[in-house]
């Protein structure tokens, strides 16, 4: 009986996460195009026909329609159901990790915003200021729901990575984008300085690996977005940062 209850609870959590993912797809598409995310129904990007409610069920509708618009037959990007699947799984994993707590909700909201930032940066090589401002809301809530990170650590975290990035960009134009710098400043208050350094390190490692692959393949791409890798580092440091740092220090008996 208890197992059945947990299955139902986490099924609800997955569906909730997938529904949020469906909304994130709207944000990812509309924000760069300066279209309101609060008004107007979802529509096909090709023929602009409004999407009916029963054609807008996360993941299921994509499979049902075989990845095509119900009106013009145009191909629907696989990224839409993948984002919904990702946010559904993310919701389940976070509630497994934190339990049914406020912390889980706050961290999920951060993950949702970071997903939007990463996808938009992939598409446009820019991080919208509005999303960085939106990230400030759960970041401020973190001060209360994660009191183990002290205020001084958070204040130092604001400049621990963002200031070196700014100085490097002033010395080497286009070394980092302004959005990357702002993102790390907000993340600094969210994480505290130790985990902010970890987030930046993870972002550099993953971004460096991708850059190396691009160089090996000798593609025509001369620039790549750094925001997605910073988002990965931030989310990893937020959830597992203390565990990773504790493990690393333990190697040296510290």
UniProtKB/TrEMBL annotation:
The chain crosses the membrane at residues 6-29, 89-120, 126-146, 155-176, 196-216, 228-249. The keyword Manganese does not apply. InterPro entries: Prepilin_IV_endopep_pep, Prepilin_pept_A24_N, Prepilin_peptidase/N-MTase. GO terms for biological process: signal peptide processing. GO terms for cellular component: plasma membrane. Its main location: membrane. Keywords: Cell membrane, Membrane, Transmembrane, Transmembrane helix. Residues 111-211 form the Prepilin type IV endopeptidase peptidase domain. It is found in: Cell membrane. Residues 15-96 form the Prepilin peptidase A24 N-terminal domain. It is a multi-pass membrane protein. Pfam families: A24_N_bact, Peptidase_A24. One of its GO terms (molecular function) is aspartic-type endopeptidase activity. Belongs to the peptidase A24 family. PANTHER family: PREPILIN LEADER PEPTIDASE_N-METHYLTRANSFERASE-RELATED (PTHR30487:SF0), TYPE 4 PREPILIN-LIKE PROTEINS LEADER PEPTIDE-PROCESSING ENZYME (PTHR30487). This is Peptidase. It comes from Acetobacterium bakii.
